Amino acid sequence: MRIVLDGVSLYYHEVASALYYVLGSLYRYHGYRQLELALGTVWDFYFRDGEPVRFEYCFPGPGATLAQNLFPYHGVEAAWRTESDPDAAWRTVRDRLDRGEPVVVAVDNFYLPFRPAYQDVHTNHLLVVYGYDEEAGLAYVLDATPPAYKGPLKLDELAQARSSRNPRESDRHMFFTQTPIAGRWLDASFPAAPREVDEPLLRRVIADNLKRMAMVSQDDGLLLGLAGMRALGGRLRGLARRAGEEGAAREAEDLTAFIFGRMLGTRAFHADFLYSAACILGDPRVRRAARDLEIAAHGWVATRIMLGKGSQGDLADMASRVARRVLGIADREESACEQLAAVVD
Amino acid sequence: MRRGGVGAMKRPGGASGDRFVILDLEPHFNNDGVSWARNLVDGGFNVWGISYPAEALPAAGSVVVWDVPFVFPSKDDGRPNNMAMEGQRLPVPPGRYRWLNLLGASENRCEDLITLVHAGGPEKVFLGLADWWTGGTPYFGERVAFRSETAHYPSHVQERMPLTLWFQRLRLDESRALKAIAWPDNPAMHVFSLTLTRAVAAGRKG
């Protein structure tokens, strides 16, 4: 049997992670055009000690599912599932394709011939599967991460990539290794028609986000809101002091992965959300907040690069510099909060 | 190699006089972002050791990009050829300037505040640089200076992976004499060459 779904397109964003690329492809397939109004709604800060972050699909948050944490306003349901048996993992994807639904799956790039890491470096990644031809032994996959690829992949290579232990075997295996792929796939369902984004919804989103950013955690292991962001700055200063100790470099790698997976996309997409909201609401204060978030997004880019370099080099120096930057970004995000508070008062 | 807007070699200044001031960045270089295919482990623009192909970049020395003269750095193995911004201060021949022109790129898209040190005090302005890696989309008004067809990974030459070096420029306040430029602490942003365009004297167009 052969099924190849039409209308599944590549989506790429140069600041966000692959999670946003695959979600962008799904949202477009289901009729959404302004992705920032769908994927850019949530602006928060959430960091929990010990929460796994070495997944490109990782998006820790207070909710139980990805949809609850990243896009709770549009009636979309999405949760990660795992399937340890490779045959069952494929049947799950095939059944969805038979129903006309492209499927997001986690993979290890080591087994994908079109990835630069092929047969070289283990690292987890995300693909959209949009078809299959079982007689030919092929799946059809889409990968927007450069070098972008849309086309066939041998089913046995896909199975290997989906069942990989994703081991860390050398110093070049950084950030997204040591997390078994485990047949992970995204169980997603979309409403029949995209929900219209109107003024009441925009104001609700803004008000909800102000509450998220004002949250204060009573738990030392959970950092929330602006206060939590500033507490992260304090932790980075502590990491700088412990730079020579065992585990410090791995902690820096974890934080790099957290910033990449959790911070860059939320800030970049929420900046775009606010730019669009400013046009719809006709409010220059929302536009100024959008600019603050855009600057913050680029600040998080800098911290990701700095901490990544620090994990491989002079961590004591770099972690203290990143701590200063994080406090500066918190000030910028607080400025956005002040602009928006006046909008919803 | 594909280039954008690169004209024939001109002597800086040329018939219009000393219109340009090319800064010597070499003492500040702290990153080797270029490698030759015969030695891929040389260099590493980013933490994964990925680098621009030397074969796709101009020879060291004078080069004109979008009508602005630059000095392109050495591409020799083992030599740094760009400065990742880490708070360095660049002295400038004191004078009034119209444009700050540079060849550079960011790891991811990035922007930050740079400090222009004037005779009357410092001024902070945003400078943005688009991503080197995506093959392409300017974000802050950049133009393509050079673009490769491939990327150099430590273990192989990656096809279908264009890398871009951008031409970016920043309008300066011509009424104030500039003495120095101070970069932010932001090593995501890299500069390979920098040229200042002098302010146009009163009564002349430029």
Quickly describe the structure.
The complex is a heterodimer of chains A (345) and B (206). With 345 residues, chain A is α+β, with helices and mostly antiparallel strands. Chain A has helices spanning 18-29, 35-39, 66-70, 86-98, 155-163, 199-214, 225-241, 248-281, 284-312, 315-344; strands spanning 2-4, 46-48, 77-81, 103-108, 124-133, 138-143, 149-154, 185-189, 222-224.
Task: Give keywords.
heterodimer, A: 345 residues, Cathepsin B, Chain A, 2 domains, 5-stranded antiparallel β-sheet, 10 helices, globular, B: 206 residues, mainly beta, 4-stranded antiparallel β-sheet, elongated, disordered N terminus
Outline the structure in words.
The complex is a heterodimer of chains A (345) and B (206). With 345 residues, chain A is an alpha+beta fold. In chain A, 49% of the residues lie in helices and 14% in strands. Chain A has helices at 18-29, 35-39, 66-70, 86-98, 155-163, 199-214, 225-241, 248-281, 284-312, 315-344, and strands at 2-4, 46-48, 77-81, 103-108, 124-133, 138-143, 149-154, 185-189, 222-224. Chain A is globular. Chain A starts with a strand and ends with a helix. The mean pLDDT of chain A is 92. Chain B has 206 residues and is mainly β. Chain B has no helices and 17 strands. In chain B, strand 13 (151-152) and strand 14 (157-158) form a beta hairpin. Chain B is elongated. The model of chain B is unreliable at 1-17 (pLDDT under 50). The chains are: A alpha+beta (345), B mainly beta (206). Chains A and B meet through helix 9 and helix 10 of A and strand 10 and strand 17 of B.
